[in-house]
Design a protein that fits this description.
Layout: H1 6-25, H2 31-47, E1 62-65, H3 71-81, H4 87-91, H5 121-140, E2 152-157, H6 158-162, H7 164-175, E3 181-187, E4 190-191, E5 194-195, H8 204-211, E6 214-218, H9 224-236, E7 242-247, H10 270-280, H11 292-322, H12 324-334, E8 354-356, H13 357-368, E9 375-379, H14 383-386, E10 405-407, H15 412-423, E11 429-435, H16 443-452, E12 457-461, H17 479-484, E13 490-492, H18 497-509, E14 515-518, E15 523-525, E16 543-546, E17 554-558, H19 563-575, E18 580-584, H20 588-592, H21 596-602, E19 610-613, H22 622-625, E20 630-632, H23 643-649, H24 654-666
Parallel strand pairs: 1-2, 2-3, 3-7, 6-7, 9-10, 9-11, 11-12, 12-14, 13-14, 17-18, 17-19, 19-20
Antiparallel strand pairs: 4-5, 8-15, 16-18
Length: about 675
C-alpha cells in the first residue's frame, strides 16, 4: 500500500470496503459511500458524540442516513469505531439473516437509529428526532444541568430532496426553528437514470433559505478542513436548522465509472474494483482489507467518543441528587412504566346520550394528559375536527418547547414520518390526526413504523360514508382493509364512547407497532354497560356484547358505528323467535392473537350462520363469517348527501340487517 496519512488511509479503506461488499453481494450502491467517505470520517472520528458499547445512550447524537442505499458507509464506520459489527458482517452484506441489510434497519444493526430506504423518509424522521430533543430538554434540563443537548445529523441525497415529504418536513423544521438539525446534502449530480439535470435543476440553496434554514455550500467533499469548518458554523447556529450542500463525486476513485450513473445502483464489476484498489494503493488480489493501523485509529476514536457518556453519567448522577423528582419521572417513563393509576383517569360515559367517537377520543385525551407527560401530538390542520387538542397545554413553538400540541400543517406525509422520529426517542408517545381518507397520504411512514415496530398512534376520524356531504373524495371505503393488511399494525374501530376510551388504553399500552384509531364524525348512542358487556373487553379484539338466551341461530358482527345496527336487529329478530349473538369486533389483529379457546367461544365452529356489518370494503370479512355467512359492506364509492341518507342508501339500517340475516338463515346448509 502506498504511504499516506492515517486519515486518508481510513477514508480510502471505507471506499474499498464499500466496493468489495457490493461486488460480493452482486447488489447495492457502491458509488455514494465511496463519495461520502470523507464526511463519514469527520462525523465518526471528530464530530459526533456516541458510545459504541452503549448505542442507546440517552444523550448521544443521532445520525440518519436518509439516502439509505449508501448504507455501506454507515456499516463500515460502525464496524471501525467498535460497534457490535464484525468484518464478516460486512462480507455478508445483503445476505439472508445478515445484520447488514440492503438499507439501514432499526433494531437489526447496532447503531442504526431509524430504518431508511424510501427516499425522503429519513429526512423527515430527523425532524421528529429534533422535536423530541427540544421537548425532552424543555421538560428536564435545568439551568445548571444540560441533560439533553444532542444534535441530529443526517445525510440526504438528490432523491431525498426530490421527494415531496422532505419539502413538507423542511418547511416545518424551518418554521419551528429547529437549530439542533445539521443535514448534509450530497450533491453528486447523479441519479439512476443519469445526470440529475434530467429532472432536477432547482436552486436547492435558495429553496432552503426560503424555508428558514441556515445554508452553507461547499465545492469539494474531500476538503476536510472546509467541511469541518462548515460543521462548526452549523453547530453555532442554534435558531435555524442547517443544510450543508457538499459537491461530491459518485464512485470516487473508480477510473471508468467515476461521476456516472453506472456507479449508482449496481456493482462496479470485478475488473473495475481491481482498478479502484490499485488507485488507492490496495492489493487488487485481496478483498475486505482493513489495515491494522486504520482499525486501531477508529477504535480509539470510538473509545474517545465514549468518554462523552462517562461525563454525562457523572452529570446525571449530580442532576439526580439536585432534581430527584424530575429524574424519577424520566427514569419511570424510559423504563416503559407509567403512573400506577393513570388508567383510573379514563372517562366513563353514561348511557342515554349520544356522542361521536372522535369527541369521546378528545375527552379521553384531555382526561389522561396530565398523567402521561410523554404523550404529545397534534393534527394536520384538523384539530377542531379530529378533537385532538390538549386544552390545558400550549402549542409546541420556538418560545414554548414544552408545548404538547403540534400543528403539523396540511402535511400528512411529513406528519407520519415526523411522528416516527419522535417515537424513536423511546421516551415519547406521539400521536397525529387527520381524516381516515387521508391515511392514503401516510402509507410510507405507516409502513416504516410497522417495520420498526414503534408506537405511533394515528387518530383517523370521519371514518365512513356516514360523514355525508363532503362526498366520494372524503368518504373512506377501502382504507380500513388497507390499514389492516399492514403487518404489525393495530387498527381499532370502537363502537361507542366507552370503547373509544379503552381503545386509547390499549393503544398507549401497545409497544410493538403503530396503532390506528378509526373514529366517527357522527354521534353514536352510548351503549349501556350495565345491560351489555363492558367496553373493557375491547382489549380482546372481539367480544360478545349481547348474547342470545340459548345457542344462537346467527352471529351478528360489527365494528364502529354499525354495532348499534346489529344491537337493534337483535331485539327485533328475537320477536320473530330468532336468537342472535351480537359481537363487537373493534380490532381484528387483537382478536387473532387470542387463544383458540377464546376464539371458539366467540365464534363457535358449529354456528355457521354469521353476518358482518361494516361501512367499508367487505374484503377480509370472509375469514370471520365463513363460507356460510354474509357480509354487508361497500364495494363502490359513496354519494354526496347527508350522512343518514347515504347510510340508508347503502343498506346500513336495522331493517336491512334483519332482512339479510333472515335471508342467510333461510339458506340450506
Amino acid at each position: 500500500m502506498k504511504s499516506k496519512n492515517i486519515v486518508q488511509e481510513g477514508i480510502d479503506t471505507v471506499r474499498v470496503l464499500s466496493a468489495d461488499a457490493v461486488q460480493r453481494a452482486d447488489s447495492g450502491h457502491p458509488g455514494t459511500p465511496m463519495a461520502l467517505s470523507p464526511l463519514g470520517h469527520l462525523l465518526w472520528a471528530e464530530v459526533m458524540h456516541y458510545n459504541p458499547k452503549n448505542p442507546d445512550w440517552a444523550n448521544r447524537d443521532r445520525f440518519v442516513l436518509s439516502c439509505g442505499h449508501a448504507c455501506m458507509l454507515q456499516y463500515s464506520y460502525l464496524y471501525l469505531t467498535g460497534y457490535k459489527i464484525t468484518l464478516n458482517d460486512l462480507k455478508n452484506f445483503r445476505e439472508l439473516h445478515s445484520i447488514t441489510a440492503g438499507h439501514p434497519e432499526y433494531g437489526l444493526t447496532p447503531g442504526i437509529e431509524v430504518t431508511t430506504g424510501p427516499l425522503g423518509q429519513g429526512f423527515a424522521n430527523g425532524v421528529g428526532m429534533a422535536i423530541a430533543q427540544k421537548y425532552i430538554a424543555a421538560r428536564y434540563n435545568q439551568p445548571d444541568f444540560k441533560i439533553f443537548d444532542y444534535t441530529i445529523y443526517a445525510i440526504c441525497s438528490d432523491g431525498d430532496l426530490m421527494e415531496g415529504v422532505s419539502a413538507e418536513a423542511a418547511s416545518l423544521a424551518g418554521h419551528l426553528e429547529l437549530g439542533n438539525i445539521i443535514y448534509f446534502y450530497d450533491n453528486n449530480e447523479i441519479t439512476i437514470e443519469g445526470d440529475t439535470d434530467l429532472a432536477f435543476d432547482e436552486n436547492v440553496e435558495e429553496r432552503f433559505k426560503a424555508y428558514g434554514w441556515y445554508v452553507q455550500k461547499l465545492p469539494d467533499i474531500n476538503d476536510l478542513e472546509a467541511v469541518s469548518k462548515a460543521i462548526k458554523n452549523a453547530q453555532k447556529e442554534t435558531n435555524r436548522p442547517s443544510l450543508i450542500i457538499i459537491r461530491s463525486h459518485i464512485g470516487y476513485g473508480s477510473p471508468n465509472k467515476h461521476d456516472t450513473a453506472a456507479a449508482h445502483g449496481s456493482p462496479l464489476g470485478k475488473d473495475e474494483v481491481r482498478l479502484v484498489k490499485e488507485n488507492f494503493g490496495f492489493d487488487p488480489d485481496k478483498n475486505f482489507v482493513v489495515p491494522d493501523e486504520v482499525l486501531d485509529f477508529y477504535r480509539k476514536a470510538g473509545k474517545k467518543s465514549a468518554k462523552y457518556e462517562e461525563d454525562w453519567n457523572e452529570l446525571y448522577k449530580n442532576y439526580k441528587k439536585r432534581h430527584p423528582d424530575l429524574a424519577e419521572e424520566y427514569e419511570t417513563i424510559t423504563s416503559g412504566k407509567w403512573p400506577d393509576d393513570w388508567e383510573k383517569k379514563l372517562p366513563v360515559f353514561e348511557p342515554g346520550d349520544e356522542m361521536a367517537t372522535r369527541k369521546a377520543s378528545g375527552k379521553t385525551l384531555n382526561a389522561i394528559a396530565e398523567y402521561l407527560p410523554q404523550m404529545i401530538g397534534g393534527s394536520a390542520d384538523l384539530a377542531p375536527s379530529t378533537d385532538t387538542n390538549l386544552n390545558d397545554y400550549k402549542s409546541f413553538e420556538p418560545k414554548h418547547r414544552d408545548g404538547r400540541n403540534f400543528h403539523f400543517g396540511i402535511r400528512e406525509h411529513a406528519m407520519g414520518a415526523i411522528l416516527n422520529g419522535m417515537a424513536l426517542s423511546k421516551y415519547l408517545i406521539p400521536y397525529g390526526a387527520t381524516f381516515l381518507i387521508f391515511s392514503d397520504y401516510m402509507r410510507p411512514p405507516l409502513r416504516l413504523a410497522a417495520i420498526m415496530k414503534i408506537r405511533t398512534i394515528m387518530v383517523y376520524t370521519h371514518d365512513s360514508i356516514a360523514l355525508g356531504q363532503d362526498g366520494t373524495t372524503h368518504q373512506p371505503v377501502e382504507q380500513l382493509i388497507g390499514l389492516r393488511t399492514v403487518p404489525n399494525m393495530m387498527v381499532i374501530r370502537p363502537a361507542d364512547a366507552n370503547e373509544t376510551a379503552h381503545a386509547w388504553r390499549v393503544a398507549i399500552n401497545h409497544t410493538d407497532g403503530p396503532v390506528a384509531l378509526s373514529l366517527t364524525r357522527q354521534k353514536l348512542p352510548i351503549i349501556d354497560q350495565n345491560k351489555y358487556a363492558k367496553a373493557k373487553n375491547l382489549e380482546k379484539g372481539a367480544y360478545i356484547l349481547s348474547d342470545s338466551d340459548g345457542d344462537p341461530d346467527i352471529i351478528l358482527i360489527a365494528t364502529g358505528s354499525e354495532v348499534q345496527l346489529i344491537l337493534g336487529a337483535q331485539e327485533k329478530l328475537k320477536k320473530d323467535a330468532i336468537e342472535a349473538r351480537v359481537v363487537s369486533m373493534p380490532c381484528w389483529s387483537l382478536f387473532d392473537k387470542q387463544s383458540d379457546a377464546y376464539r371458539e367461544k366467540i365464534f363457535p365452529k358449529k354456528i355457521r350462520k354469521r353476518l358482518s356489518v361494516e361501512a367499508g370494503s367487505p374484503v377480509g370479512w370472509l375469514k370471520y363469517v365463513t363460507d356460510d355467512g354474509d357480509v354487508i359492506g361497500i364495494d363502490k364509492y359513496g354519494e354526496s348527501a347527508p350522512g343518514p341518507e347515504v347510510m340508508k342508501e347503502y343498506g346500513f339500517t336495522v331493517e336491512n340487517v334483519i332482512k339479510r340475516a333472515k335471508a342467510l338463515l333461510s339458506k340450506k346448509e
